[in-house]
Amino acid sequence: MNNLPTLSLGIHSVPYPVVQGGMGIRISGARLAAAVANAGGIGIISAVGLGWNSSYFDPTERSPKRRTEQFFEANRLALIDELKKARELSPDGVIGINVMMAARDWETLVETAVAHGANLVIAGAGLPLSLPAHTQEHPDVALVPIVSSVRAAKIITRRWQKQYQRQPDGFVVESPKFAGGHLGASADAIHDPAYSLEQVIPELVTYVQAEFETPVPVIAAGGVWDRGDVEHMLALGAGGVQVGTRFITTFECDADDHYKQAHLQAKSADVMLVPSPVGLPGRAIRNPFVDRVMAREDVSEPCTANCLQACRCRDSRETYCIMKALNRAAAGDVDNGLIFSGAHAGRAQSLTSVEEVMKSLVSVG
Known about the structure:
This protein has 2 domains: 7-256 and 348-362, Aldolase class I (TIM Barrel, Alpha-Beta Barrel), CATH 3.20.20; 263-330, no CATH class.
């Protein structure tokens, strides 16, 4: 099918250099991750907010403290369920999780994932400086930080080597110019060439080749849509690519069909930057909810789960509850929720299978 290289992260190898992006809440769950793994890539379950719509969580609990504790426990139990389901669907595939350092329960999610069969952990939304401390009993689990610069990679590497005698098994570099969801750069820096994949990937590849005796792949993320994009990233020195938005319009994606249709119906002009309660912009598809946010209408809601380390909605009643907004959209209320997307949303013309998407990424012609 291809002449592309295989991809290895730690001891885990897959035929094609494709990592499926982690998309919360319940956009990339067990079904999508297993399908990508079965098709020869690396499947990723987003560990963000899995407990929200589960039977384990009651958002009407009156005590804020008990409600938060219940939500975190619901996330843990729902992650176990999702990993079990993914492994049933893909017994031999490489399956991992994506976790945000910005989440207050990230340590529990990591420890839960590695104890229940996750092959790797991709960690972003902050520097995962203490990540190895939570995986020490599972040394075969690959650890892959998300970074936006060589400087960030160096900080992580030095801390891990000094404190844990552990090196990263790979790095994901996200382009804020094209990536979906929360962006690791301010609005002013999104188009800065210093954060472009063309700039960061060659620099990071040079660094890891000099720093590590064993190969440490650099994974390019943001704007990857087809075989030509994959070849471009590999030519820059990347060992693989991460693909998110392209997998949303698949039958296997865990989101509601209305969510998928919103992506199919979107035009390039509908993709825009939206302020977020985490303090950095996100890329999303324009809809009535986004219009209200951009018009600075009051869309704030009482904090339900106290789920983030920093949250303007919780702390100053600014913006909106990111958990509720993402959940509403993922569950099908696409007018009143937040529909995250990459810059190329709308390029898909119809729903298709993960297998067909993989073919378009790795096949010639």
